[in-house]
Amino acid sequence: MRRELAALLCGALFGGGLAAAGMTDPSKVLAFLDLLGDWDPTLMVVMAAAVGVTMLAFRVILRRPAPLFDASFHLPLSKEVDARLVTGAVLFGIGWGLYGYCPGPALGALVYGQPEPFLFVAAMLAGVFAEWAWRQRR
Predict the structure, then answer these.
(1) CA 121 to chain centre
(2) pLDDT for the residue 51
(3) DSSP per residue over 50-102, as a string?
(4) Angle between helix 83-99 and 26-33 (nearest 10)
(5) What is the 3-class SS of 3-33, one letter each residue?
(6) Fewest CB within 10 angstroms: 17, 37, 96, 118, which?
(7) Where are the domains of the chain?
(8) Half-sphere exposure (CA, 13 Å, Cβ side) for 68?
């Protein structure tokens, strides 16, 4: 239960940070992607700050023998770039570019009660379920 509570608190902190930075507003993301129009570099600043904090935190945290609420760290073992990874990245980029949402900000935007993030999250969950069902058939 402690692990789930920690995950909930981390997710809430992440969502709060996205909301405070304005990244739950798809128009901010689309303005960042509009290089030839009214370009807004805010997303780049937010991402640079997040990457910087993560790089520093990983150096400190991974020195520990294990995380606080688990027996071991669960880091990716494969460094292979395969078709599944590339396809997922392409689909992510298309969805992000068309709608201005990616999964984290879309989930955070649900609290505003607007229909767009609910539609995006429903489509995202349908895609996750379709991929899971396809893998089960294989």
Answers:
(1) 12
(2) 94
(3) HHHHHHHHHHHHTTSSS-TTSSS----------HHHHHHHHHHHHHHHHHS--
(4) 110
(5) HHHHHHHHHHHHHHHHHHCCCCCHHHHHHHH
(6) 37
(7) 2-45+77-137
(8) 8
Helix (H, G, I), strand (E, B) or coil at 42: helix
Per-residue pLDDT band at 10 (split at 50, 70, 90): confident
**What is each CA distance from 84 to 46, 80, 97, in whole angstroms?**
28, 10, 20
**Could you give the 3-state DSSP secondary structure of residue 126?**
helix
Paired tokens of 47: 């991402």
Quote the CA–CA distance of 18 and 8 in Å, as a whole number.
15
- Mean predicted confidence (pLDDT) in 120-134: 92
